[in-house]
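Hi there,

I know you've been waiting on this one. I reran it after we fixed the sequence typo, so this is the corrected version. Both the input and the resulting structure follow.
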Amino acid sequence: MKKVLVAVLAFAAIQLSAQDLPKPSPFSTLEQRVGLTDFKVEYSRPGVKGREIFGGLEAYDKLWRTGANKATAISFNTPVMFAGKEVPAGTYSIFSIPSNGAWTLILNKNTELYGTDGYDEAMDVLRLELEPMKSEMTETFTIDFQSIMDGKANMEISWENTKIVVPIKVDVQKKAISNIKEALANGEEKDLWAINRNAAIYYSRNDIDQKMALKYMTTSLELKKDNWYSHYVHGEILNRLGDNKGAVKAAEMAMEIGVSAAEKAGKDFGYGDMIEKAMKEWSAK
C-alpha cells in the first residue's frame, strides 16, 4: 500500500510540473511571405500592464532581448536587405538597445539565449541605428510586417507608445528565375507547356527580357497549341516586341480557340471583349 501511495504521489508531482497554465508573456509565431521569401518570427509578447516601459522597465542604453522569455528569433530562406544591409538566409535572434535617441537593432547568430546572459557581440551579423517613432498605445509587444509590395516591406516592432520601423527588401527576380529553371529541369513532361508559359509571362510582364519571353512562349505553343490564353499571351509578347501584325494574328487565334471551346461546352466565351480590346489597340499601332 505504501509503494502504491508513493507511486501515486510521484505521478501527481509529474502532472503538476507539466501543467498548462497561462503565461504572463504568451508565445507567438508570425509567418509572412515577402516577394518569394518566407519569414518566420517566434517570440514572447509581454504586456505594458500599467508600467513605464522604455526608460523604466527596459532601461535606456542597455541590451534588451526584444521580447520576453527566450530570445526572439527571425528566420528567412533567402538573403534579405535590412535597411540596405544584406544578411544571409538563416535564423537569428533579435536584440536591441533602446535609447532616448536612436535605437540599435541587432541580429545575432545565437538563437538559444534566455535574456541577455551569454550574448556575444562577436556573433552579431547586423547592427542598425534606427530612430524610434511615437505610435498609438500598443499594450502587447508586437512584431509585424506592413507595407508589403514588390519584394519590399516594413518590419515593425511596437510596444507601449514606441515603434521601430525596419525597411526590408528581397531579390524577387533572382529567386523567381531560379524557380523557373528548377521547374523546367524537374517538371513532369505533361506540365512543361504551362511551366514555359508561366516563365514567358514572368519575363514579359516584368520587362526582364522580351526575346527570352518569346522563346519560352514559342516552346509552350509547340507543346500545346489548343489553349486560347497561351495565344493571347503570345500576342502580348509580340506586341511588346513591336510585331503588331503578329500580335493581332495571335489574338485572332486566341479568340477562335476560346469561342470554339465555349460553344462545345454550351457556354459563352467570357474573354471575348478583352481580346477584341487588345486587337484594337495592337492594330492601331
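Quick highlight: Residues 172-283 form a domain with the Serine Threonine Protein Phosphatase 5, Tetratricopeptide repeat fold (CATH 1.25.40.10).

Best,
R. S.
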